[in-house]
From TrEMBL:
InterPro entries: Flagellar_FlgE/F/G, Flg_bb/hook_C_dom, FlgE/F/G-like, LlgE_F_G-like_D1. SUPFAM superfamilies: Flagellar hook protein flgE (SSF117143). Keywords: Bacterial flagellum, Cell projection, Cilium, Flagellum. Belongs to the flagella basal body rod proteins family. Residues 96-138 form the Flagellar hook protein FlgE/F/G-like D1 domain. It is found in: Bacterial flagellum basal body. Coiled coil: none annotated. GO terms for cellular component: bacterial-type flagellum basal body. Residues 186-230 form the Flagellar basal-body/hook protein C-terminal domain. It comes from the Bacteria. This is Flagellar basal-body rod protein. GO terms for biological process: bacterial-type flagellum-dependent swarming motility. Signal peptide: none annotated.
Length: 235
């Protein structure tokens, strides 16, 4: 019974992580350049089972009789790099990459960050910057001035499995990037979020149902423990 409580605790932790991730995706459904994140769960490695038998002493080891996995866990996460739809804004400082590419901006401590969100603006030096004020880099690695057709640096990730989200629409990677020249950058457009509300709501409903099922199991386990402690204990 105590093992059952531990299994339920782990199950609630998994469901809570899934719900938080879904909430983050849904909250950014209208955020330009946002890429949804998917979580993966897997069962823990099997625990080897054995027993003891042979008379009152129960001292004969019976060896391996099978295995069991007590609960699931979050095994990883992956950024969905599917491109969102293009949206026409007509603003001259908005840019969209028509393809699998990312703009490069200079973040805090001169760290290069990558984003699909081309919702830029001009600073006092007439340079293109993000809404947070990060300079947008050109193909030469320098900050871009607000010209009509800026030569923006566009890169692709060498391995999409190594993408890490740094918050909002900024990403980094441990797998390296490659600069590309053959992707079209369209002024006056933005890339929409790739979050599908229909899919997100379906997954949210499934998560809620799993919460309800686990709560019912928790209630049954609690009633069993109550009888074991308060009723059987009196015999």
């Amino acid at each position: 019974m105590i093992r059952g409580l531990d299994t339920l605790r782990a199950d609630f932790n998994v469901l809570q992580a899934r719900q938080q991730n879904l909430s983050s995706n849904v909250a950014n459904v209208n955020t330009s350049g946002y890429q949804q994140k998917h979580l993966f769960q897997a069962a823990l490695a099997d625990v080897r089972l054995h027993n003891y038998e042979n008379g009152p002493q129960n001292d004969q080891y019976n060896g391996l009789v099978g295995g069991i996995s007590w609960h699931n866990q979050i095994s990883g996460a992956k950024i969905d790099t599917t491109m969102g739809a293009l949206k026409h804004t007509e603003r001259p400082t908005d840019f969209a990459i028509n393809g699998d590419g990312y703009f490069v901006v200079q973040g805090p401590n001169n760290q290069q960050l990558y984003t699909k969100n081309g919702n830029f603006r001009l600073n006092q030096q007439n340079q293109l910057v993000t809404q947070e004020g990060y300079p947008v880099l050109g193909a030469n690695g320098q900050a871009v001035t607000g010209t009509a057709n800026p030569n923006l640096m566009v890169v692709t990730f060498n391995d999409n499995n190594n993408i890490q989200n740094l918050g909002a629409t900024y990403y980094t990677t441990t797998g390296g990037v490659s600069q590309v020249q053959n992707l079209q950058v369209q002024a006056g457009y933005l890339v929409d979020s790739n979050v599908s509300m229909a899919d997100a709501m379906t997954e949210m409903m499934q998560t809620v149902r799993e919460f309800q099922s686990s709560q019912q199991v928790l209630s049954a386990t609690n009633q069993t423990l109550d009888k074991a402690v308060n009723n059987l204990g009196k015999v």
